[in-house]
Design a protein that fits this description.
The chain has 4 helices and no strands.
């Protein structure tokens, strides 16, 4: 069975306006002659795009219990750079360039 493709961008304003007015996904689908799943996926994609544009990237790892002082930040950064330098040196040594 062939998949049905619909240009949802043409319906974007109508869908969002009806959603703000409080219409359910099913009601929007019936009025526009689409399937409920199409409306659901459109709203999900729209919300994800809105959220991605606003929020900052998530930090990795466990959150700190207390904030770092500037001295602690500098010492951690120095350790990180030292690890990076040693890794690059070992790579250059293995590649025969050092």
């Amino acid at each position: 069975m062939a998949r049905k493709w619909t240009n949802m961008a043409a319906y974007a304003e109508k869908i969002l306006k009806m959603r703000e007015e409080g219409s359910t996904r099913q009601e929007i689908a019936e009025i526009l002659g689409l399937e409920k799943s199409q409306i659901k996926e459109f709203i999900k994609r729209h919300n994800r795009k809105q959220k991605a544009g606003i929020s900052e990237p998530k930090r990795k790892g466990r959150p700190r219990t207390r904030p770092l002082t500037t001295q602690e930040e500098m010492s951690l950064r120095i350790k990180e750079l030292e690890r990076e330098v040693s890794l690059l040196r070992s790579f250059l040594h293995a590649a025969g360039r050092m």
